[in-house]
Give the backbone structure.
Amino acid sequence: MIVRSYTGRTVPEALDQVRNDLGTHALIIETRPVREPGLFGRRTGFEVVAAVDQDRPAPIMSAHRLADWTASALHTPPSQAAGLVPPPAPVPAPAPDGDLAAELLVIRRQLARLAAGSGTPCGHLGEAATAHLEDVELPAAVVAELDTALAAAGDRLPPERRDAFLAAVLARGLGTWAPIAWPQVRTLLMVGPTGVGKTTTLAKLAGQLVLDLGRRVVLVTLDTYRVGAQDQLKAYADLLDIPCDTAATPAQLGDLLRAHAGADHILIDTAGRSPADAARVHELRGFIRAAPGIDVCLAIAANAGRAECASVVERFSTLPIGHAVVTKLDECAAPGRLYGCLRRHRLPVRWCTHGQEVPADITPADPADLARRVLAPSAAAAA
Ligand SMILES: Nc1nc2c(ncn2[C@@H]2O[C@H](COP(=O)(O)OP(=O)(O)OP(=O)(O)O)[C@@H](O)[C@H]2O)c(=O)[nH]1
Ligand SMILES: [Mg+2]
């Protein structure tokens, strides 16, 4: 299956490109506004994601349906058009077999859904997959989006392609997570809540830069609050045989940066800040001002709760966050919740960490990997 994205100033403009490039067989996966990089970027146009099955000559979607969609998009506000060919809401599937316990479980889940007022349609996803997606806390709106995408694909989507198709729809929802461009990132400041894995992540990055890329790296900590914080970073620096310094004030940081003018990269650790502690988050702005051209990376834990995630993003958005790292992916019991958080806040995720081992347990962020984690057991259940 080929999945491509097209951008235009308006939705119809992007749809014209879909038609020209993929033809009228294309299936529209998603439509969404495009924003400038950064947490709260200005809208610059619209992106339409479309797919076509290159192995199947039969059309996935008729020209008529695409035309219908185009016509409705022209008369629908972008927020409502952000989806697909809207199918009639399907009736939830009956229990898979006659087993009474299984049937009761299905009924109980459906009642719970109704009671919660979610009304999530799941007729095309099926009960088992929907239950799984709810268990991993994928937001109801995204579950509905997947169900709608399956409805739009209809019988023309072969069963063996279903999981790849759903993964593509989910991954596209996260946008593109561009890898870090190290040549342009000389000074990187790691911020985030307490205990999220900031110091360990910086040590992993330093390890990769020194051992894999042969770069000259200096570690600096601004953490003068916690007993042992400097020793922790110094221990990693000693292992890599690189300098490690401490700056207690913005002026000291400025001096250190000048002193290490020959370094390729300066990685700066900070003390964990509770998102509730606005004053200490604000304090970081003084250090940022002392380091022109500095890049700021927000560390966010994969196992953070929904409200916690929102408050971390809100509080730290007062800083010029240009990158994010998702830590502790190995401890994430609810990948659907993580997916919802990253998608809602459109964080520019560069890496995921997935263990305590330094420097091994860090990889470039990959939306497809997170999509597979969200779907994993449902793929097994559907097989
Ligand atoms: N399972 C798991 N543990 C991790 C990961 N990253 C860090 N940790 C562990 O999380 C704990 C806290 O890590 P630190 O790097 O000290 O966290 P921090 O954000 O610097 O903490 P503060 O400086 O106190 O705010 C340590 O036990 C790390 O080994 C990860 O990806 N997976
Ligand atoms: Mg630390």
Residues 56-96, 378-383 have pLDDT under 50 and may be disordered. The pocket of guanosine-5'-triphosphate (ligand 1) is lined by residues 194-200, 226, 229, 271-272, 327-328, 330-331, 353-356, 361 (CB under 6 Å). The CA atoms of residues 222 and 270 lie 5 Å apart. The two ends are 19 Å apart (CA to CA).
